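Deliverable D2.4 — example input (structure tokens):
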């Protein structure tokens, strides 16, 4: 009788363990779409940059003070052109771009379109 109870408990334990393993394996499996998204990200991740802007603002009492903003952008070409949003660079006196490798470069505004919230800036980093 005790042997039967032991075999039953062991069988239940093995069943629970097997179900747990199968659910863990299923949780870590990824779909083809997810694999595709990962591949695209790995190809373009180095082209995504962080942009820091320094602007000067005036308060109600006409005191002038600097404000810092940030946003992201995408490198467009090997000449250092970066596409970003107009609101990221609007009224900025100073722009700095941080590349994926952590290096920081000054940038300047080339042009912007406030109506479409687009802007192009240029960094002068070595190629």
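Example output (designed residues):
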């Amino acid at each position: 009788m005790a042997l039967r109870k032991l075999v039953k408990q062991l069988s239940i334990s093995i069943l629970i363990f097997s179900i747990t393993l199968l659910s863990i394996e299923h949780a870590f499996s990824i779909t083809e779409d997810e694999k595709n998204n990962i591949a695209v990200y790995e190809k373009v991740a180095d082209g995504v940059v962080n942009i820091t802007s320094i602007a000067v603002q005036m308060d109600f009492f006409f005191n002038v003070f600097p404000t810092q903003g940030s946003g992201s952008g995408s490198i467009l070409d090997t000449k250092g052109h970066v596409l970003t949003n107009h609101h990221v660079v609007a009224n900025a006196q100073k722009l700095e771009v941080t590349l994926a490798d952590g290096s920081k470069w000054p940038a300047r505004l080339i042009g912007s379109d406030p109506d479409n919230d687009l802007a192009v800036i240029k960094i002068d980093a070595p190629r």
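Strands lie at 48-58, 64-75, 81-84, 92-98, 104-113, 118-123.
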